[in-house]
């Protein structure tokens, strides 16, 4: 329990994701004991996904469990019109989104999740089946910041059976979710497969310990990647990340892969990393479009930048953050009324080249077309990163140091 909570001053208020199942009830009970005397206020939330009959009643029962533990409780409802595709993935995304907004509204310092060593082992097994590398096989983190919220998993070192035995010993009940036995879900199948692997000594606790060791390896690789990126990389004035050829010539391929994959995710503000295939093609010096970004080799260096087609619907008002990175602000003499910020685009670049005052950099058109520009009534007014500020300034909301930090944050 202490690993995820150690090393930091206890938050004034801590959130708990309480489904009402055995793992989350054990989490709530253990945290109630831990918080006592530390001045930490606990607040629990249950997400009602409304995917099956009785979910509302279960959410209310979770609230009664929280009340018996002396914990305040909220029910968060997922409003949806039906789910297409991967049901569990859609529900998971909705759950994290609702909990993140709830945590910010309640002013919570962090949110604790009830994942156990068994969950960790199942995660590793599923990722192993997909051919994951060090990052994937390092499993879930004990502590992670995502969507502006700190997420804690204090029970990754505790097995599910031990937690249920502890609950029974303390007279605490829980809700059984029938979907946990439905083999249509990948995690349920992984759970059953793991049970059959104990004959060869492959247990949940063993896999969880392996994930811990791989997280140590991941950290070492991340630090090495940051050092290599600071040596071989730079952020161009247009916002493109430029990785020098020495990275691909002198550094191990895994280090280059980590840097390229993180660069693409960082540029696109993506939740998940790019697929291994396209990243491998970039390392093999082929131009690739992936994750809403383009990778182009130019004079021995790899240029990574946003794909203009992925930005066609991305707009912002002057002063607002555009595409997660840029704020375009007018000078004292520039008029911002009625203006919008969007990608310069290829048509805008053609118009820009006809403006005598513009000093368009000698760069690939695809790089310049993806930079932010100001339009008023459909008319190009300014393109600060493409050589025509016209009284406007592009202010970076994230810089090269933020990219380097992304290489070691998980």
Summarize the structure in words.
This protein is an alpha+beta fold. The chain folds into 3 domains: 201 residues, Rossmann fold (3-Layer(aba) Sandwich); 92 residues, no CATH class; 88 residues, no CATH class. The chain is built from 15 helices and 17 strands. The strands form 4 sheets. A 6-stranded mixed sheet has the order 3-2-1-4-6-5, sandwiched between helices. A 5-stranded antiparallel sheet has the order 7-8-11-10-9. The longest helix is centred in the middle third of the chain and has 29 residues. 37% of the residues are buried. The mean pLDDT is 92.
Key terms:
alpha+beta, 410 residues, six-stranded mixed β-sheet, 15 helices, five-stranded antiparallel β-sheet
Topology record:
Elements: H1 2-5, E1 13-17, H2 22-35, E2 41-48, H3 55-68, E3 72-77, H4 87-106, E4 110-112, H5 117-129, H6 134-137, E5 143-146, E6 149-152, H7 160-169, H8 186-196, H9 204-232, E7 233-235, E8 241-243, H10 245-250, H11 253-268, H12 276-283, E9 288-290, E10 293-298, E11 301-306, E12 321-322, E13 326-330, E14 339-343, H13 345-353, H14 365-369, E15 372-376, E16 379-382, E17 392-396, H15 400-406
Parallel strand pairs: 1-2, 1-4, 2-3, 4-6
Antiparallel strand pairs: 5-6, 7-8, 8-11, 9-10, 10-11, 12-13, 13-17, 14-15, 15-16
Helix pairs in contact: 2-7, 5-8, 5-9, 9-11, 11-12
What is the SS-derived class? alpha+beta
CATH topology of the largest domain: Rossmann fold
Overall mean pLDDT stands at 92
Got a strand count? 17
Give a brief outline of the structure:
By secondary structure, the protein is of the alpha+beta class.
């Amino acid at each position: 329990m202490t690993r995820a909570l150690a090393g930091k001053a206890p938050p004034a208020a801590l959130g708990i994701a309480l489904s009402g199942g055995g793992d989350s009830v054990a989490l709530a009970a253990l945290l109630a004991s831990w918080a006592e005397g530390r001045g930490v206020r606990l607040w629990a939330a249950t997400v009602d996904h409304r995917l099956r009959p009785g979910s509302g009643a279960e959410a209310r029962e979770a609230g009664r469990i929280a009340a018996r533990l002396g914990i305040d409780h909220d029910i968060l409802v997922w409003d949806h019109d039906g789910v297409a595709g991967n049901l569990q993935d859609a529900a998971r995304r909705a759950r994290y989104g609702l909990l993140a907004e709830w945590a910010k509204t309640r002013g919570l310092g962090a949110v604790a999740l009830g994942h156990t060593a068994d969950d960790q082992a199942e995660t590793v097994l599923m990722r192993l089946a997909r051919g994951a590398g060090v990052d994937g096989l390092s499993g879930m983190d004990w502590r992670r910041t995502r969507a502006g919220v700190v997420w804690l998993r204090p029970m990754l070192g505790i097995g599910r059976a031990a937690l249920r035995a502890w609950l029974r010993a303390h007279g605490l009940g829980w809700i059984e979710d029938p979907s946990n036995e439905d083999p249509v879900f990948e995690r349920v199948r992984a759970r059953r497969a793991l049970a059959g692997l104990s004959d060869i000594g492959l247990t949940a606790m063993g896999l969880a310990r392996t994930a811990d060791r791989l997280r140590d390896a991941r950290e070492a690789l991340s630090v090495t990647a940051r050092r290599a990126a600071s040596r071989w990389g730079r952020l161009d004035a247009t916002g493109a990340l430029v990785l020098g050829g020495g990275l691909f010539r002198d550094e191990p391929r895994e280090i280059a892969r980590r840097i390229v994959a993180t660069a693409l995710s960082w540029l696109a503000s993506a939740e998940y990393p790019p697929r291994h295939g396209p990243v491998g093609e970039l390392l093999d010096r082929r131009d690739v479009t992936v994750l809403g970004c383009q990778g182009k080799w130019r004079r021995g260096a790899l240029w990574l930048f946003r794909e203009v087609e992925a930005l066609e619907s991305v707009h912002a008002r002057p002063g607002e953050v555009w595409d997660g990175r840029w704020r375009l602000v007018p000078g004292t003499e520039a008029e911002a009324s009625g203006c919008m910020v969007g990608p310069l685009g290829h048509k805008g670049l053609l118009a820009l080249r006809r403006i005598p005052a513009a000093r368009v950099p000698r760069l690939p058109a695809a790089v310049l077309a993806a930079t932010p520009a100001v339009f008023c009534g459909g008319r190009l007014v300014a393109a600060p990163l493409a050589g025509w500020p016209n009284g406007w300034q592009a202010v970076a909301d994230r810089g090269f140091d933020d990219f380097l930090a992304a290489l070691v944050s998980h």
